[in-house]
Amino acid sequence: MNITQVAGGRNDFQLVRHMTLRGGQIEIGRQVTEEALRLGWTPPLSDPTVNRARRTWFERHWPQHHARMDGAAAALGLDPDQDEVALDTLAYVPAGSGCSALWCPPSAATDGHGRVGRNYDFFTMTTGEIMGGTPGPGELPMASRPYVITTVPEEGLASTVITMSELDGCMDGINEAGLAVMLLIADFETAAPPEEAGPQVGLASVQLPRFLVDTCENVEQAKQALLGAKHYDYGMPLHYLVADAHGGAFVWERGKDGTEHIIEVGDGPLCVTNHLLHRNPDPMNLPEDSEVSFGTFGRLRTLYERSKGATMSPRDLRESLREVAVGKDPAMPWRTVWSTVFDTHDRTLSTRFYLGDGADELRYTEELVFTARPGTPA
Question: Would the pTM count as exceeding 0.90?
């Protein structure tokens, strides 16, 4: 395991670390668990019956994660077959976000590269403040210590992901096959605080992107994997934009009745923010935003109007992201804490991280480029 500090510092809002993991999946699981323990993680208690079923499900459907759980057991000095505690969900802050994303297919790009741009918008407060209290002693803002994690297994797909909340999950990710995945809140107006139900059988919200970059090479494989998987959201419904190196893309989301929806737009741009697309399919016929909708409809209209019928350069895509980013407003407790452009052709993600509010505008890092292809320079 190699960990380097790649952006920010202790006097900035964010301090970003890049962790590179190599070896077999068991060894990778041990390494990532050791870092989680350093951050203060402890394995949560779990219902033994549920935990046994969770391990069985992972073994059958996500063997990479199952092997990493064995590595977690080794790091903890536990029997991997014990049923009393969950050996994953390596959380060090809660999850959830309000974000914007735009897929530009190869046919609509000036250089023929498919790209996804996304803003990750999140609170600049601590967990205690978000819950209506005061910060604990030494408590840092929830989004202040993100990780970029590059995983190079001995067998299987290498990948690079960004996470702010769980070292065995992610918010953004791309693998060496060019499959890119990102999560967004699916229905901001009805989002509720996460439930305290504990880990369930199947995929948690932030495990789902990692599951796809571990197991799938293109959008058709990803559709089948999602339709065949169990998943749960802790009361915070999310949806996901998935794109590949061949020009395919879709948004996956669930309705309130549990129905699963795959939204595609053919060979054209695909925009997604924080409302359910299957309930609002026409970008030009969206409701007006309310006080609690976080501008989701307006942001999507802006992205759609900037991209429809256009041939977009990499600069055009980045300018579109800036157009819908959260600006400097002392009254607003959130910012665009990172902004990422995925190049599915080059298998890279390029990210700017938020450092704080400057005198006139927000401060960001220079764009950092990470590759998902081992041995290939970014």
Answer: yes
